[in-house]
Amino acid sequence: MTEPDPKPKSHGAGDLPEPKQPPALSSGFERGVEWLRGAGDASDVVLSSRVRIARNLAGFPFMTTAERADRAQVLELCKRRLMNLALGEGRRMLWVDLHTATPDERDALVERQLISRNHAKGKLSTGAGGQDEPRGVAVILPEERISAMINEEDHLRLQSIRSGLALDECLADVDWLDDEIEKGLDFAFHPRFGYLTACPTNVGTGLRLSVMMHLPGLKMTGELEKASRAAHDMGLAIRGFHGEGSEANGEFYQVSNQTTLGKSDAMLLRELNDEIVPRLVGYERHARGRLLGDRRETTHDTVARALGTLRHARLLRAAEAMELLGLVRLGVVCGLLPEVNLDTVHGLLLAIQPAHLQRITGRVLTPAERRSARADLCRARLGLR
Amino acid sequence: MTEPDPKPKSHGAGDLPEPKQPPALSSGFERGVEWLRGAGDASDVVLSSRVRIARNLAGFPFMTTAERADRAQVLELCKRRLMNLALGEGRRMLWVDLHTATPDERDALVERQLISRNHAKGKLSTGAGGQDEPRGVAVILPEERISAMINEEDHLRLQSIRSGLALDECLADVDWLDDEIEKGLDFAFHPRFGYLTACPTNVGTGLRLSVMMHLPGLKMTGELEKASRAAHDMGLAIRGFHGEGSEANGEFYQVSNQTTLGKSDAMLLRELNDEIVPRLVGYERHARGRLLGDRRETTHDTVARALGTLRHARLLRAAEAMELLGLVRLGVVCGLLPEVNLDTVHGLLLAIQPAHLQRITGRVLTPAERRSARADLCRARLGLR
After folding, report:
1. Helices A354-361 and A103-111: crossing angle, nearest 10°?
2. What integer pLDDT is reported at residue A201 of this predicted model?
3. Is A313's CB within 8 Å of B314's CB?
4. Mean pLDDT over residues A155-175, rounded?
5. In this structure, are residues B214 and B48 in contact, taking their beta carbons and an 8 Å threshold?
6. Which residues of B fall below an 8 Å CB-CB distance to A?
């Protein structure tokens, strides 16, 4: 094991693209984010796909029982290994020590879906912990597609996120990362149970699959609850935009597998990628077809009004902005708002989040100032040319 | 008494400006209307002033007891006299026989505030009557400022309507018309009671004064009810945009005197024009001052969103359109929406009404088509250049 390359080391999340001058409101530094590209299979309904796997280092206690010294050592080992990977031309690894990052940097990482809320807070699954818990995140730049959380619920959670329905490709990404890390670190593995994880529901493959779906059609036709129950019966969990406990503003839903034990990675993935998600996509497309049939005028009215509000409001709360952006996205995808660029909408989904807003405006904002800055941003980016 | 000049005779309300080709959505044939000019005293709060007086022909029973033959004779006498007035250069008299006009023509006259709803319907104050009741309206063109309803509640109701707070000028207008008519017709007059009218509350001076006020500030600060009670205590009635029984969408209120007996015309007018209305104007301006002080951002947000909706909606009901136009008018008058022309807003207040919408689009519209045409009109006229 070699020493980590000191060059691209910890500067916090802002390292990504923190310019000397605060960028103009219309610049959009979040646009490189892979999962906002709006491309890939079924991208009219599936915003992004994500695969996470859990790994733990052999010879160390799980996070649930580890001492702080153990956690510090795990962090150091993982960090060295990750900083030392061969990433290929044009890529580099960003490392962020979350225990020394500012709250704003951590929040920006949550908004970019690179760390979980609990990881940002340093809250351990035991309920203990806090902001100075030794923990970190590694992100492969420039795409931010592949990343790893250190000392979240497990020692390592490896993630890949891609736009559209692309669970296969995501799994290939994390498999690659898994293999690369394993070249220098031993993972806890049981010949019968497979990879061992802190939470029993992850034992075996440790695989967590999820897709971010945009289901405004089902919502507007009143069929969302039915579809949601069907998804639940098929073993899926449906959550809001920011995962567990968050609201589904804008009708963006994270659909994920509930359990991993007893099914192979391949089975889980085939089921979700090839059966369940396509079925939900079909439901949503059918609902949109109805909206564009009988209810075309009222649908057009609804999405156009949402655009009008985003283009004119002087104050916008995040939840309302998400709701309006969700409607505008529906309008764009359905061809009802040809004047709006889908990239702009996707960029705003991220840019309107509190921490990103602060980075874009280049200053710390009170909640009232955020509402104003958020509206300024929407007007500037969605304004008529 | 000479025969009426046959030239400008009854062609219905559409005679005003009915072009061969339906005019484009942005043309705005209603813009000549005096009370929409947005000029005059206190025009930030007072949209228009109106004076009506009631007169009845001597030797004929009042409308409450007249036979149809009496009413037909009254109509004929008034029509001849009105068509024969010396109007001065550049003016002409438009006559509309309401019993032969189309419902759409009658509705357009109501929307232009030239006849009352009951007059449009031919409904007598006794509850009897119907569309074929002999009745008419005379309007001096091109301003449409001075007009006369024949066989409404009284044989004659003379009206003048002007923009801003201008009850003096309106009274001078109807006095002139009164005098001109009286040169050729005798009015029922009692040496002790004054002019006699069908409804006892009008006896004496027969004078009805009203101003159309825009009170969004009082509404938004929650003080409208208090101001409304105060106005009531001062002997005023407050009604909606289209008078008795109509709603005050957009916070446009018709404020009028309740009784006429026992006070001279001059007293009534001085009281309303110089005391009561200016006091209400003061309340409204004070409320707007508060909105532009502490609550400037939320007020700006509210009026800008209203503009955004008008500029983007694909379907608009009349009541909602009035509400939104009222907010936009507040924004324009307060300098929060410098990009919007007040004339455009005033023009739309009339143009979005059902009968005007049909005239503008040049075809008969179902209610659903009206909602769509109304939204098209608002987008076209308020669209960004």
Report:
1. 110
2. 63
3. no
4. 95
5. no
6. 297-298, 300-301, 304-305, 307-315, 368, 372, 375, 384
Q: Which residues of A touch B312 (CB under 8 A)?
A: 304-305, 307-308, 311
> Which among A326, A322, A330 is positioned nearest to A296, based on CA atoms?
A330
CA B328 to CA B309: how far, in whole Å? Answer: 10
The string of pLDDT tens digits covering residues B92-124 is 999 999 999 999 899 999 999 999 999 999 988
| Choice between B230 and A77, residue whose per-residue pLDDT is larger | A77
**Is B16-213 assigned to CATH 3.30.40.10?**
no
The H or E element containing residue A338 is none
- Where are chain A's structural domains? 16-213, 296-381
Q: What local confidence, expressed as pLDDT, does residue B235 receive?
A: 80
Q: Which residues of A touch B327 (CB under 8 A)?
A: none
Q: State the sign of the Cα–Cα–Cα–Cα dihedral B288, B292, B293, B296.
A: positive
Q: Which one of B307, B313, B372 has the shortest CB-CB distance to A312? A: B307
Handedness of CA A38, A47, A124, A54 (dihedral sign): negative
Disruptive mutation site among B301, B303, B317 for chain A (greatest number of A CBs within 10 Å)? B301
For chain B, what is the mean pLDDT? 86
- Please name the residue that has the structure tokens 């994920």: A256
Taking a C-beta distance cutoff of 8 angstroms, is the pair A77, A56 a contact? no
This complex has an ipTM of: 0.85
